[in-house]
Amino acid sequence: xxxxxxxxxxxxxxxxxxxxxxxxxxxxxxxxxxxxxxxxxxxxxxxxxxxxxxxxxxxxxxxxxxxxxxxxxxxxxxxxxxxxxxxxxxxxxxxxxxxxxxxxxxxxxxxxxxxxxxxxxxxxxxxxxxxxxxxxxxxxxxxxxxxxxxxxxxxxxxxxxxxxxxxxxxxxxxxxxxxxxxxxxxxxxxxxxxxxxxxxxxxxxxxxxxxxxxxxxxxxxxxxxxxxxxxxxxxxxxxxxxxxxxxxxxxxxxxxxxxxxxxxxxxxxxxxxxxxxxxxxxxxxxxxxxxxxxxxx
Length: 297
Description:
By secondary structure, the protein is α/β, with parallel strands linked by helices. The protein has 3 domains: about 1-95, no CATH class; about 100-225; about 235-295, no CATH class. The chain is about 20% helix and about 30% strand.
């Protein structure tokens, strides 16, 4: 590695009773051995857990200063998120951001333009409000895959008709670990416009709630465009319905006997399937395969 001229480093690390990674550690433990390095691109997240030990953790200003004083780095951005008294996270990255992935950002994320990002995970113990998703849609204009993990209800749901959020390139949306407010936020097309959404992961209970048990006209929702796969999370049981027959004529097909589905995947424990899942299997028209067993996405 001593002759390395360019390095791209994407690092997610968990530490216990230690300080965050800063430029001093980067240089002393890694970069000092790369004398020919002239381009260093990085994204580093340090999740710190403190177990009955008092540690003087660096502040965000300390982190920024360590990079400025070192004088060998490009422009950087950083922020610190304190999740609890024993857990916090420091996120530092070089600018302009040059990775396709951006994992586990939260409300503290300072933002910028991230034209390269295609895959995003957002997670927080505090609610994501409408303005947060406006910020995401503008800062990540080419986003294709979005996972939302937040079980807290939104506090501000006064959506303005003039503030329609658009994700022009979003293809896959995962709402399995999201409170129903975020399902409403993304699937109501008067709030968010998703012209290319083809894959949706969602809890069955959430789908029931926002569609009022499938009685609301589906033209009000973004899922009318789903063509590839629908993943339903039914309590602790997941079922995957493939192909677009589930969404017929822009609406949910309630007569499952008319659905021709080549593959059905049902996860969890085979001896604990709900009546609803078995009802679905029994009515599907000639499935080629039914696969029982745990699976994850």
